[in-house]
Amino acid sequence: MGMWIGRNRKARICYGFDEVALVPGQFTINPNEVDISWELGGVKYTIPIIAAAMDGVVDTKFAIEMGKLGGLAVLNLEGINTRYEKPQEVFVRISEASNEEATKLVQSIYLAPVKEDLIFSRIKEIKKSGAPAVVSTIPQNAQRYGKIAQEAGADIFVVQSTVTTVRHISSEYESVNFEKFCKEMPIPVIVGNCVTYQTTLELMDIGISGVLIGIGPGAACTTRGVLGIGVPQVTATCDAAAARDTYFKKTARYVPIITDGGMSTGGDICKAFACGADAVMVGSAFAKAKEAPGKGFHWGMATPHGNLPRGTRIRVGTTGSLKMILYGPAELDDGSQNLIGALRTSMGNCGAMNIREMQQTELIIAPAIISEGKIFQKAQQVGMGK
Predict the structure, then answer these.
(1) Could you give the angle at the alpha carbon of 355 between the alpha carbons of 160 and 66, nearest 5°?
(2) How many Cα atoms are found within 13 Å in the side-chain-facing hemisphere of 311?
(3) How would you classify the pairing of strands 38-40 and 20-22?
(4) For residues 267, 269, 270 and 271, what is the CA-based torsion angle, rounded to 10 degrees?
(5) C-alpha torsion sign, points 335, 340, 342, 346
(6) Which parts of the sequence belong to the IMP dehydrogenase/GMP reductase domain (predicted)?
(7) Parallel, antiparallel, or unpaired for β 9-11 and 134-137?
(8) In this predicted structure, what is the pLDDT of residue 318?
(9) Could you tell me the residue ranges of all domains in the chain?
(10) CA separation for the pair 363, 277 (Å, rounded)
(11) Residue 303 backbone phi and psi in degrees, to 5
(12) How far apart are CA 18 and CA 340, in angstroms?
């Protein structure tokens, strides 16, 4: 499989969201009657969209609001919310800083130590509201913060790094034993990120509850540029879905895959599910929400997910409430709002009654899909013509 790129060397052709399209089904369904729920660790969640563990996106208030709307939001346990008693004051300082000041400011902000009592209180605050408490950390701190999280009542624990494998070799430090960690944690553990069939299979085999798929495609991710590493999300999701299905046939245990990054519109999200995703993790789309603590900014955070170098800041602007982004009504024509409506409508047109059926939707290679026949959109600078 693959094409020759030089003597004795082949490379596989891989695809991203802009290069494929979905084929309508032989019958259609009322969008209001499709089931978009998904399960993790035996618990059913209303909508299959998760807000990423980015400081500019998720704080306790955002997590609570996301929970009320049926979704999940991941709180970064090594970010601003667990370093400062009054994180909103820090967010205001970052948002008001000039571009020249922003880099040094953010770098200095992350020098403050993480306070374990704040980890406990932030989780308690989310739980008190009735919303699911989902938290994230890097592998090196999983053992320590995992104990605090479960004592505080967290519902889901995420362990995330730029590239995650079961077998990590190092003579300088002891790597986390994911299998032992998952057995000791009484709550579901999501691990990521990976992009290959074999690694996904090995991660599922050690007892994780879900796996994050995506290296390189995120809006704030520099992994491809800095390290040259990454796989386009369509191919990565399809490969991971194949691993999930193989593992299910072998063990009868279904481990959901969560496509993480590279999705900025409802169309991208719909394609992710057609490729085999059970849920998606989104960052940039929610950074634009009025409820986001960063107020329309991305900046480098103390997370290992290949994000922007610590201190870099990008303005994305605010474009509406979280409810509008999820449920509409859309005020913009670029696909960044009413994500749930887009998913329901796409599933209805593809004849998919639920997420499992959406995963069977026919995909075609269509690199011209974003430009074909869009002459008027381009002229008017609307929709895909922007």
Answers:
(1) 55
(2) 9
(3) unpaired
(4) 90
(5) positive
(6) 15-297
(7) unpaired
(8) 59
(9) 24-385
(10) 14
(11) -120, 155
(12) 20
Distance between CA atoms of 313 and 333, rounded to whole angstroms? 26
Catalytic amino acids?
Answer: 221, 313
CA distance 368 to 20: 9
List all residues 6 or more positions away from 132 whose beta carbon is below 8 Å from its beta carbon. Answer: 45, 67, 72, 126, 155, 156
Look at residues 55, 376, 14 and name the one whose alpha carbon lies nearest to residue 229.
14
40: β partners:
43
Question: Which segments in the chain show pLDDT lower than 70?
Answer: 218-226, 295-319, 369-386
**Residue 381: DSSP 8-state:** T
Are 77 and 135 contacting, i.e. CB atoms less than 8 angstroms apart? yes
Give residue for tokens 């509008």: 324
Confidence at residue 224, expressed as pLDDT on a 0 to 100 scale: 64
Give the orientation angle of helix 233-251 with respect to helix 266-274, to 10 degrees. 40
Strands 210-213 and 189-194: parallel
Q: How far apart are CA 212 and CA 12, in angstroms?
A: 22
Give me the pLDDT at residue 79, please. Answer: 92
Q: CA nearest 101: which of 238, 299, 374?
A: 299
Tell me the two tokens of residue 151.
Answer: 């004592």
The structure tokens listed for 118 are 């704040």
CA-CA distance, 83 to 92, in Å (whole number)?
Answer: 15
